Amino acid sequence: MQVELLHFKEYYGLEFSEINQTAICKLLIIREEWPQFFQKLIQNPQKLQQKTDSFYGFDSENREIDEDDENLMIFLSNTKKIKVKDELVERIVSSRNPFWLPEDIPLALSNKDYKRIFEYINEGDDDENFDLIVRYLFKRFSDEIQKSCNFEKGAQLFDNLLKINSEKSLPNIVNQKIELVSEHRQLLQFIGYIEEYNDFVNYTYMIKKNGQDYFFDLVVRAINDELQPEFIGDRLFMDLIVSFTNNYPEKLFCEKIKNGFAKKFDSIFGFKYNFENGNLIKSEKIQFLVSDELVKLLIEGLKPKDGHNTLNDYEVILDNLIFIYTKCNYDIEKLKAYLMINTEELEINLITNFQHEEDLFNIESKFAYFRKVMNLDSENPN
Q1: What is the Cα–Cα distance from 168 to 353, expressed in whole angstroms?
Q2: Which of 207, 226, 239, 277 is deepest in the core (most CB within 10 A)?
Q3: pTM for this prediction
Q4: What is the structure's pLDDT at 294?
């Protein structure tokens, strides 16, 4: 509240703000604790005096029953000595005030009616409405994360900020404040509820260029499993890795999460996932994700696992190794060295794992093609 009082002094002037400080504080408390009643004040400033009078029976015909009516009436009774004239209420809660929006805008934000939101932003002089709506969203976002720990609601408000940022960049001071809202654990929890993932990727890239790495580092650490396991589930892992890998403009992100990608590849994507034809990660991005750990994992996947691997699994793994060999900027000699260690053993295991004649023919043909493409026969003539 002290910060808001400072803003009032900037907006209305020192003399007005100091003379009416107690009245302003009273209205700020009403706005915070009884927002529905506060919206009525915006429409009709006389409601405040009517509500106060109805408590004492002076205006019983205007008495209204609200959900928090009893607590509101007690508050008005306890603060009855703080007189707030109708003219003062009208001035402070007018739509031009820097802390309250027109009645339809909070609803538009809740419904993600961005056509109306951007209309409102463009209606103002200079950036007045833009500053107002961003300040409103940030305050509510901060309250939901810090006070209520309502991460789902916080994410909805953050989605609003992300969408606005996609059209008009948020001020640097707001980006800095977002970092300070909460610790990494809470930030990651609300990220799990974000819907505007592509906008989140672009926002992360934008602020990183300005020297603010906190979301970039947070996502990288989460994917690399450097945070406590309960912070990130499989669905969030999938959302983060697919959105950031495909849409982050620089290869830096892919290079940073190689270890996490390899570690969770089998459990999240599975050996059936084809690097070249898969529909989750762009094939041109795969080359930046290939690591020694991923190559070893794929080779290990060629070894029979209690009969659970299908012919298709093996074929896709072989295709993926060929893709790495032919399309990725990976150390070819290192890849061939990994394969040469036990390539004959792998081939024997594969053949003995399939007894059906057609399967046997297919896997022998596939492995022969694999050896030829990888140029393994020339290096291992035996």
Answers
A1: 59
A2: 207
A3: 0.68
A4: 94
Are the C-beta atoms of 30 and 19 separated by less than 8 Å?
Answer: no
In 10 A of CB 116, how many CB atoms? 14
Percent of the chain with pLDDT over 70: 74
d(CA 319, CA 366): 9
Rounded CA-CA distance 29/187 in Å is 28
The pLDDT value given to residue 86: 75
Q: For the residues of 181-207, what is the DSSP string, one character each?
A: SS-HHHHHHHHTT-S-HHHHHHHHHHH
DSSP of 307-349, one letter per residue?
Answer: T---HHHHHHHHHHHHHHHHHS-S-HHHHHHHHHTTHHHHHHH
| Residue carrying structure tokens 């260690």 | 341
**Which candidate, 253, 322, 263, places its Cα nearest to that of 291?**
263
Q: What is the mean pLDDT of residues 126-153?
A: 81
More confident residue, 12 or 53: 53
Q: Which helix (H) or strand (E) holds 238?
A: helix 234-247
The token pair that represents 382 in the structure block: 């035996």
Q: How many CB atoms lie within 10 A of CB 173?
A: 9
CA 325 to chain centre: 35
Where would I find the H helices in 13-103?
14-19, 21-33, 35-43, 47-55, 69-78, 86-92
pLDDT score recorded for residue 123:
85
Amino acid sitting at position 216: F
For residue 354, pLDDT beyond 60: no
Local confidence band at 126 (pLDDT 50, 70, 90 cut-offs):
confident
One-letter amino acid of 351: I
Phi, psi of 15 (to 5 degrees): -65, -50
Residue 127 DSSP class: T
Residues 47, 41: Cα–Cα separation, whole Å: 6
As a whole number of angstroms, the distance between CA 262 and CA 330 comes to: 15
Closest CA to 305 of 294, 290, 317: 317
What letter would DSSP give residue 169? P
Asked if 248 and 230 touch (Cβ cutoff 8 Å), the reply is no
Q: How many C-alpha atoms does 282 have within 13 Å on its Cβ side?
A: 12
According to DSSP, residue 61 is labeled G
